[in-house]
Amino acid sequence: MEEQQQIKLEQHIATQARKTEEASGAAKLCARVSAKENLFSLHSGSAFYRLQCIVAHVTFTNLKCNFTDRKIGNFQHCHIKAVNRTHKYISVYANIYTKPLNNVSINIRSMRYNSGYKPFFFDVTFDACKFLKKPRHPILILFYNTLKDRSNMNHTCPYNHDIIVDKLYTGDHELEFTRYLPVPMGDYAIFVIFYVYNVEACTVNLYLRITN
């Protein structure tokens, strides 16, 4: 089984490499995006952000997972592994003791390192079950599209199973999520808090570096 998974990962990496080669740099990759998508305004609260089509290299640097309420679940594993010198993947397995899950809220904060990690760009709390039923928020949709093919968090509530993220590869971020990357290069973190029935259940902090 492990050998088959490794073969699938290698095939996936090869496919992404071919896509990158076909793009032949940022200009050709951005050319695939329509003029309407290439530069647009996103309304978030009272602020407007203009998102530019670019290509960046994303590297996962650290991953921290913790269940604050061990009655709800526990992490079987939570780690980063290197695929090669330039790319890494993350894998997470959360054992869920409280099933089914049909009342889940999530807070996602993006942070930028500047003499410590400070809030940057967005901080949003949402009802996960409502979002999965009818996705609307543009930034959340970008995150979800990156995650859904590598996780079993890809269907509507209730959740009657453990939560798995299987080999989420950084190359996926470069070709999809960072098409619309309204941030300069540097060190960042994504802090995620999961609430189950309005009680904090667990936190997942993903640290990454963005370079050109």
Describe the 3D structure.
The chain has one domain (2-211). The termini are far apart. It is α+β, with helices and mostly antiparallel strands. It is globular. Mean pLDDT is 78; it is low at 19-54. 25% of the residues lie in helices and 44% in strands. The chain contains six helices and ten strands; from the N terminus they run H-H-H-E-E-E-E-E-E-E-H-H-E-H-E-E. The strands form three sheets. The protein has a five-stranded antiparallel β-sheet. It has a three-stranded antiparallel β-sheet with strand order 4-5-8. Strands 1-2 form a two-stranded antiparallel sheet.
**Arithmetic mean of pLDDT:** 78
Count of DSSP-assigned helices: 6
Radius of gyration: 18 Å
**Strand arrangement across the biggest beta sheet:** 3-10-9-6-7
Order of helical and strand elements: HHHEEEEEEEHHEHEE
How many strands in all?
A: 10
What percentage of the residues does DSSP assign to strands (E)?
35-45%
**Tally of domains:** 1
Going by helix content, strand content and strand pairing, the class is: alpha+beta
Weakly predicted, low-confidence segments: 19-54
User: Main β-sheet, in a few words?
Assistant: 5 strands, antiparallel
Which outline best applies?
Answer: globular
Q: What distance separates the N and C termini?
A: 36 Å
Please estimate the helix content.
25-40%
